[in-house]
Amino acid sequence: MHGFVVGSAGVAVVPEGVLRAVAARAVSLVADWNSDAPDSGITGLMGGGEVTLYRPRPRHAVDWWRIRTQRKGERMTATTIHFVRHGEVHNPDHVLYERLPGFHLSDRGVRMARATARYLASNPQTSDIRAVYSSPLERTRQTADEILRAVNARRSSAGQEPLSMRLDERVIEAGNEFRGMRIGHGQGALWRPRNLRLVRNLWTPTWGESYRHIASRMADFSRDVIRRHPDEQVVVVSHESPIWSFRHYLETGHPEHNMLLRHAALASVTSITIDDETGGVMSITYVDPAAHIR
């Protein structure tokens, strides 16, 4: 199988004249990571949540990304990785928690994780899960625990051995220089010269780990998953920025994006199906099983 290679792309730089007008809105969402902005695609309903189906865009296709034509008598095998974003986090001070310890799921976040766990375990298209991976942070581990509980209950009823959680640093939250700050307040005030420099480029971005590096580590992780679990379904609990950066890279050929247009809600599932032989992306689907949780 060919590897994932992050392609080159130009980077748009925000002019100084408009920076102050957009910075407050843009960077405030760094703390939230939960955009409801619509995206393009074929939208329908499955399992009670919204689903958007994508196909690779031919103009961006490279040799590892094409959909291979099935030959007569040949059985194609494909691995599906279900990337799950963690549930809502208990964060009463509204700080950007990034990779800081001590940030666990809120009560609502636990309910969200359970809703997504029920969806994954009961939906015929996702129920045959063979492995569960997680970012090592507390909020993702809690979410993965709920998924494992539901999946293992189903496996037990079928006489199968229970699965255990596997941690991997490559799917961890993006590094961010605003960690521990409340955006727009105190040390996080955007008028501070240091902070203005951090938000000068919204597409790279300049406030922390680059989208290119995030997509690269996610691609490296995905290669390993496909090697370990060919023709299987795997759950990976991660964070909005890594999930979206990798998805955007697969759809467009570059990981840089406008964070205001992300579409990866809390406890949502982004499922990527990849041909085991060629590495071609066969489909990308999105569902939000916890959208009804209040």
UniProtKB/TrEMBL annotation:
It comes from the Bacteria. One of its GO terms (cellular component) is cytoplasm. CDD domains: HP_PGM_like. One of its GO terms (molecular function) is phosphatase activity. Pfam families: His_Phos_1 (PF00300). PANTHER family: BROAD-SPECIFICITY PHOSPHATASE YOR283W-RELATED (PTHR48100), PHOSPHOGLYCERATE MUTASE (PTHR48100:SF51). This is Phosphoglycerate mutase family protein. It comes from Bifidobacterium minimum. The lineage of its organism: Bacteria, Bacillati, Actinomycetota, Actinomycetes, Bifidobacteriales.
